Amino acid sequence: MATNKLLLMTFAICRLIVTVGLTVDPTDLLRLGVDGQLSVDPSDLETASLDFGLMTRAKPLAVLHPASAEDVARLVRAAYGSAQGLTVSARGHGHSINGQAQVTNGVVIEMNGSRGRTTAEAAARPRVSESERYVDVWGGELWTEVLKATIEYGLAPKSWTDYLYLTVGGTLSNAGISGQTFNHGKGEILTCSEEKNSELFHAVLGGLGQFGIITRARIDLEPAPQRVRWIRVLYSNFSAFTNDQEFLISLHGLPASQRFDYVEGFVIVDEGLINNWRSSFFSPKNPVKLSSINADGGVLYCLEITKNYDESTAETIDQEIETLLKKLDFIPTSVFTTDLPYVDFLDRVHKAELKLRSKGLWDVPHPWWDQRSSAVMPDEEVFYLVALLRSALESGDETQSLEYLRDQNRQILRFCAKAGIKAKQYLPHYTTQQEWVDHFGDKWDQFHKRKMEFDPRHILATGQLIFTPSF
Ligand code: FAD
Q1: Distance CA 414, CA 384 (A)
Q2: Is the CB–ligand 1 distance for residue 96 below 6 Å?
Q3: Residue owning the nearest CA to atom 5 of ligand 1
Q4: Domain encompassing residue 257
Q5: Do residues 18 and 143 share a domain?
Q6: pLDDT at residue 277 tops 80
Q7: Is residue 20 part of a domain?
């Protein structure tokens, strides 16, 4: 997917409530006295030991199901005061791939579980302000729940992840607005925004869980479109494909009628992939025979675009799309279209998940390599988000094995480095601090300074392997 800095996934977040590390009198876990549940149940420990990647395992000492932000603060205080040393990691929905939300000598806070959420705060559904167009949510809330709550008012957040079964806090910790300097905060539970405690606000967005735990977020809303026209077109020429993507994102300042609302793309190396989705798309003109396309080395490129509309714009939508498509250089007979409710479009990846689950293909290792920009962005004005979303299968085919796919990922990185192609990883996974220093580049000093300020003992999100706890 081509993107530029203006179009970077910036969730319109106006306010966050964050629990930061704070040095207090020593206490221990047993005297924590939380309102939620502190569990050492083997099944809780097992869940918290794993993540979506299924490649790393680390067993925590206990799992906290918090009832409120105060519970989170209690645990962080206790960890700070612990003489033996205790680390703390928030776990959203555990959709990391390399153990980023795991801890070995500490406590995992299950932000998304409903178990501890017994008090008004953590159990409360997202609170929508219709007049001021925002929604206040618990940090462990899934985007799908946010959507359900806001759509009742005909409103929706302005920007989404492709997949809605991720938590708000986990997503903001990886993607979103990146850093600036911020003011030193010494409260336990802090409210921060662009104006208030702005250093902390900017630090935690894209902060990889290093500076605090997001317990609440306020998200800007806009009127939700009713329907989506979802179009896929094919290319056999890579330059034509990228030229069109870059042209489409360059339209971002124009009125909605003159641009698409969503632009992604993918590479098709296997015809089976197309056959998977083409049955649910309609090809108005001469459905293309894939075998008849003279593909470059057997590879096709698919541009995926959408246009949102509702009753008031339904009459003009066909014309608007036609005008835009005319400016593109795809294979003329390869237009696949479908039309669906906005909510169903947002939920599209979950539908794919259900299909994969039914075939036993979801809970398998995921050596994902996903090069998206978050806090750290490539220097270029226009850059590409490249995602290799593959599953390792035990099929006996060596090219589908975890080791083979991991090795391919490493080869791609080496190739980029050798060819001078600059790359920044989204969901970065490094095992040495020097690699993190290289990853952050110019931002490292600021990142490090913030760490010393907000989590000086380095007890938060140790699964990222950026800092070593100092006990
Ligand atoms: P976890 O994986 O549980 O946690 C990730 C990190 O954030 C950990 O370091 C954890 O300690 C920290 N953290 C979690 N909650 C908090 C909190 N409340 N406060 C502070 N730190 C916290 N990402 C995108 O941006 N866009 C996508 O479209 C997208 N699609 C995806 C689709 C699938 C199927 C999967 C598996 C992942 C996808 N991701 C996507 C990646 C996703 O954003 C990351 O996995 C991210 O970590 C959020 O997932 P999570 O809520 O499960 O967080």
Answers
A1: 18
A2: yes
A3: 170
A4: 227-358
A5: yes
A6: no
A7: yes
pLDDT at 149 over 50: yes
Looking up residue 468, the CATH number of its domain turns out to be: 3.30.465.10
Q: Are residues 187 and 242 in the same domain?
A: no
Residues 340 and 451 in one domain: no
Task: Identify the band that residue 380 occupies on the pLDDT scale cut at 50, 70 and 90.
Answer: confident
Mean pLDDT score of the chain: 82
Q: How many CB atoms lie within 10 A of CB 320?
A: 18
Q: What is the dihedral of CA 129, 166, 381, 295, to 10 degrees?
A: -130
Query: What is the pLDDT at residue 100?
Result: 92
Token code pair at residue 107 = 């406590």
Q: Is the Cβ atom of 461 under 6 angstroms away from ligand 1?
A: yes
The tens digit of pLDDT for each residue in 218-237 reads: 999 999 999 999 999 999 99
Per 3-state DSSP, the chain is made up of helix, strand and coil in percentages (nearest 5) of 35, 20, 45
Does residue 281 lie in a domain region?
A: yes
For the cut 50, the answer to whether the pLDDT of residue 256 exceeds it is: yes
Give exposure, 67-86, as e/b (b: 16+ Cβ within 10 Å). bbbbbbbbbbbbbbebeeeb
Task: Ligand 1, residue 140: give the atom nearest the CA.
Answer: 18
**Number of domains comprising the chain:** 3
Cα–Cα distance, 284 to 448 (Å, whole number): 55
Asked whether residue 288 carries a pLDDT value surpassing 90, the answer given is no
